[in-house]
Amino acid sequence: MADWKHNPVIAIGAAVLLVLAVVFIAMWLIGPKTSYSLKCESCGTEFQAKLPKEQVFPVACPSCGKNTAYKVIQMICKACGKTFARIDKPGTVSADNMASSQGAATAIKCPHCGAQGNFEKVK
Fold first, then answer.
1. Is the Cβ–Cβ distance between 21 and 27 less than 8 Å?
2. What is the distance between the terminal CA atoms of the chain, rounded to a whole angstrom?
3. What is the pLDDT of residue 1?
4. Is 56 helix (H, G, I), strand (E, B) or coil?
């Protein structure tokens, strides 16, 4: 059997295997992450972040540092055809339940044309 101290190929191979094992274990412990579109309620910054699926919102904004960043829903205004990002936080009407909450949904305004309650979620 070759001595790893005298054979650099065995030493490099062992080091690579060790690094791969550490990376694999770290990925397994951290768990899967999901890519989210986020918007800060304080400063309006929109950004992408990979966060754990179990993430509790709000999260810290990279621009202002405040814990006021929430997931966003991309909406399309049926009146003007333009898209906009709408913050999806507890207590607001989500795109999925707009039809059943028509009173609250009409309070949503398109930031481009001002139309109210005439939106759909971008797929």
1. no
2. 60
3. 54
4. coil
Averaged pLDDT for residues 21-35: 83
Place of tokens 């412990």: 29
72, 37 Cβ separation under 8 angstroms: yes
pTM of the predicted protein model: 0.58
Measured CA to CA, the distance from residue 92 to residue 110 in angstroms comes to 15
**C-alpha–C-alpha distance, residues 90 and 107, integer Å:** 16
Q: Scan for tokens 């339940």, then name that residue.
A: 97
Higher pLDDT: 15 or 95? It is 15
- Which pLDDT score, from 0 to 100, does residue 52 have? 85
Q: Where are the domains of the chain?
A: 1-31, 33-121
Separation between Cα atoms, residue 74 and residue 39, nearest integer Å: 11
| 64 close to 43: Cβ distance less than 8 angstroms | yes
Give the pair of three-digit tokens for residue 40: 């800060």
